[in-house]
Structures are given as C-alpha cells and as structure tokens.
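sorry for the late reply, my laptop died twice this morning and i had to redo everyting from scratch. anyway the thing you sent over, i finally got around to it. pasting the sequence first so we're on the same page, its 276 residues, then the predicted structure underneath. double check i copied it right bc i was rushing
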Amino acid sequence: MNEIKHIAIKDLIAAPDNPFKVQMDAEMEQLIESITENGVITPIIARETENGKYEIISGHRRKFACEYLGLKTVPVLLRVLNRNEAAVALVDSNLQREHLLPSEKAFAYKLKMDALSAQGKRTDLTCGQVGHKSRDMLSETESGRQIQRYIRLTYLIPELLQKVDEGRIALTPAVELSYLTEQEQQTLLSEMEYADATPSLSQAMRLHRFSQEGRLNRDVIYAVMSEQKPNQKEQIRFRSEDLRKYFPKSYTEKDIRDDIIRLLDIRQKKRQREAR
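ok and here's the structure:
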C-alpha cells in the first residue's frame, strides 16, 4: 500500500545508477526559495529497501534543497516496487523535467531499457512493423530512433560526453563518434584539444567509417581534424611529437606554446633593432 510518512532526511538514499545530476543552479535556487516560503508541497517518492533505508525514486533535488535548508524530515510517499520497477519509475518521473543534459537522457534511457529487459518486456525501438515497437520505451516527446541515438551516447568516453553536454559537439556527430573504440576516442580527444576544434557531422561520419575499416589511427585522425571548415579561420598547426624534442620532457603543451611565443617575440624585437 502506498502511504505518506515524514522520514528523516538521513535515511533517504539516492537510487543506484541515478543518471540525473543534482547541482546548485538557478532552478535549484528557485526550488530552495519555494520550499522556504511554502514548505515541501510535493512529497518525495521512495521505496523502502532491505536495510531499512528509503531509496528515492523522484525527489533527489527536493532532498538536496531540504538538506541545504537544514530540515530534518520530509514528507515521503512510499511505494512498493522492486528494483526494476523502481528504475523505470525513476526515469519516467524525471524525464518530465524541462532542462536535461544529453548525458542524463542517455543514461536514463539506458537504465530504463535494461530494467525493462530484466522484466522480460520488449525494448526494440526501430522495428518497422506496426505494434512491434516497445510502447514501454517510447516517450511522449522522443521517437524510438531518437531514444536509440541518446543511448548510443553512453558509449562515449566521459570527456567527449561532457563536450556534448556543453554543446560543443552536436548529438548526431556524437552518435557517429560513439562507434569509435575507447582508444580511438582518446586519440581523437587529444587531436581535438590540439586543433581546438570539434568534428563536424561529415568528419565524424568519416572517422566512423575509417574505424569500421580498421584504418583509423592518429595520422588519419590528425588529417581529418586538420581540415579547414567553412568560415573557419586559417590556423598553423604543429603536431605535438614534432615539437617536444626541442623542449624539456616536463613541459606541458601550455609551456611549449608560451616558450614559442616568447622566442618569436625576442626574434621580432631583434629584427626591429636591426632595421633601425
């Protein structure tokens, strides 16, 4: 039976693999202000665990706000759910939020798909026959194909996924990059930082194809990332390994750049003196 109780905040725990981030941002400040003025209007939803704690299904942000305000107890709606049912409920209740990062959606859909699979329910998202798509996996705002794209993001290394969250890599190119091996992604990340650029969709598709063909290495990645894009200012680039032999091993890339600029400044001043 579902019931509402006032439960100590210290007994509320985050759900395992909770993909939704809790942070102090503008929305959190508004939530804190609301709770300060009106109290907790909507109870936290949780389920009791085997060790006597209460696993949050919906309300991680409310718990954070209440802790921030120093509250000791909060109203909690207790539901009787097993682990997989709780995972599905967690995703469904939080996907309604207005602002979600791509990484949050990615791991949320993956969590829900795994939970549904464990329950023996269909999770196929792209089958063309009517009635074969999983109604349980589809959302009100995303197509099955779009959900599949988000799930692919879980194959990105954390550094590339962060660039997707920051808006530096768009969703579709990110999906193409997710098919690269972890080592290929690490190499790509290094070249991206060196070139101070991110792959376009065309570049990402070619990197994916080269990876499938077993031809993707550092030289290929460098060649692709060195291409000048439309409206991109011309840049002069040197490969790190070509420069490092001239500097101490302890030097970082920033140290090398600073030294190069310093030496060029000295050379320019010398030329100016000679021209007088």
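The longest strand covers residues 3-8.
thats about all i looked at so far, will dig more tmrw
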